[in-house]
Design a protein that fits this description.
Blueprint lengths: L7 E10 L2 E10 L2 E7 L2 E8 L4 H11 L9 E8 L4 E7 L1 H12 L15 H4 L12 E2 H10 L5 H6 L3 E7 L4 E7 L2 H14 L5 E5 L5 H9 L4 E4 L5 H10 L2 E4 L7 E4 L4 E2 L1
Parallel strand pairs: 3-6, 7-14, 10-11, 11-12
Antiparallel strand pairs: 1-2, 3-4, 5-6, 8-9, 8-10, 12-13
Length: 266
């Protein structure tokens, strides 16, 4: 049986260095199948690190357009099963009807490339234009990058997890969520932000900035995404369209702004 919040496990390993080996104990990040079930109907199974699963359920539901507001999620029951974990989400009936309609269009189809999508239009869910354009000081990026690793507990122990942080205007790191998957880490962060009344801020991700990372960030109403690695071309075009400031190759002393540089000031 799995143990909820068993986000890491310890293994006996042999470590080789300079031709010599040593028997040591090593800690590894866990990933388990996590099923998202809405009003009794299974929708998706993700491989995720089994912590902050209530945040994950809410964040995934919001960023995937299953819910439009946190209040449409009435409750989450986390059930441990033999081969994974089930997240039973009770959602508003109107949203459930829309979800069933989306699933019904997939009946009888095979060869799904982007699961849950029946067409290119459905697969590429471009975010709406952001209503707010908060301006951030450039120093906040450096301060956030400095503070973020100190709160990456799983990464410090395993070296195997991504992290997403919510950074306030003054550069302080308000929330950090970790997972073996970068999308999961961002969904967990979005869920945590939605549950708490937050001041203005932006997201730092330890990964590259793909289209999905831009889409999820914009769907949460956040207008700046800072990535440690590179963005993709599609991510940059989408960020430009929706009004999101996209920053890549972020280091303590350098970064590259790919869209909407006007939202960064000295």
């Amino acid at each position: 049986m799995l143990i909820l919040d068993a986000s890491l496990s310890t293994f006996d390993v042999e470590r080789w260095r300079d031709g010599e080996h040593q028997a040591v104990r090593d800690q590894l990040a866990e990933e388990v199948p996590v099923a998202l079930i809405y009003n009794g109907i299974s929708h998706a199974v993700m491989l995720a690190t089994p912590q902050d699963l209530d945040d994950f359920a809410l964040g995934f539901s919001l960023s995937e357009g299953i819910l439009s507001h946190k209040n449409e999620l009435y409750g989450i029951e986390i059930r441990e099963q033999k081969n994974g974990i089930e997240l039973h989400c009770e959602i508003a009936n109107e949203r459930f009807v829309q979800l069933k309609d989306r699933r019904r269009t997939l009946a009888g189809r095979t060869g799904c490339g982007l699961c849950g999508s029946e067409s290119l239009e459905q697969a590429m869910r471009y975010p709406q234009k952001l209503n707010t354009q908060i301006v951030f000081q450039k120093a906040a990026i450096q301060l956030g990058l400095q503070a973020m690793p100190l709160k990456q507990n799983l990464q410090q122990q395993t070296g195997a997890t991504h992290a997403c942080a919510f950074v306030l205007e003054d550069g302080s790191v308000n929330i950090v969520r970790e997972d073996v998957g970068r999308h999961n880490a961002l969904d967990k962060l979005i869920g945590a932000i939605a549950k708490n009344k937050q001041h203005a801020g932006f997201v730092i991700t330890s990964s590259r900035a793909s289209y999905e990372m831009v889409q999820k960030t914009a769907s949460a109403g956040i207008n700046m995404l800072v990535a440690i690695s590179a963005p993709t071309g599609l991510a940059t075009r989408v960020a430009e369209q929706c009004g999101l400031t996209l920053v890549g190759f972020a280091r303590e002393n350098s970064y590259v702004v790919y869209s909407h540089p006007e939202n960064l000031i000295a």
